[in-house]
Write a structure and sequence with these properties.
Blueprint (H helix, E strand, L loop, with lengths): L1 H24 L4 H26 L3 H13 L7 H13 L3 H13 L8 H13 L3 H9 L3
Length: 143
């Protein structure tokens, strides 16, 4: 339960930090710059903590860290690291991890070799866990 609370708090931090960054990025002046730096320091600390939780095997943390690296959220884009965390999340049966890893394999994106069989397998597993995007994707994919 403690891990869930920490992940929840980190998620809330992201929800607060992103709008603050958006407001700050259009402003001018040294006081805003200091605020931006303060947010980055807090986020880097939170990301390090979240990555530690992910490395201990928490599937939700693995999915979140993978998302940050794949999308360059407060970190430089790192496809290799992002895919690694998504795959770990998928291997643990996390519905989002399964679905998005499946999409990556279907499209052959983020440096992954296109593999429709692996992609569809992941999406089917996500659909079995009632992931709504996976359920729709299966209806659209050819048999």
């Amino acid at each position: 339960m403690f891990k869930a609370v920490k992940i929840g708090l980190l998620t809330i931090f992201m929800m607060v930090a992103v709008p603050a960054m958006a407001q700050t990025s259009t402003s001018k002046g040294p006081e805003r710059s200091a605020e931006v730096k303060a947010v980055f320091v807090k986020f880097n600390s939170a990301l390090a903590e979240l990555e530690e939780i992910a490395n201990k095997g928490d599937p939700e943390a693995q999915f979140l860290v993978g998302s940050f690296y794949l999308n360059g959220i407060f970190v430089p884009v790192d496809h290799k690291k992002g895919v690694k965390f998504y795959e770990k999340s998928a291997a643990a049966g996390h519905p989002d991890g399964l679905y998005y890893t499946g999409i990556i394999y279907l499209n052959g994106s983020h440096g992954v070799t296109k593999d429709q069989t692996t992609g569809i397998t992941h999406i089917k597993k996500a659909a079995e866990k009632q992931h709504k995007h996976a359920v729709i994707a299966l209806q659209l994919l050819p048999n």
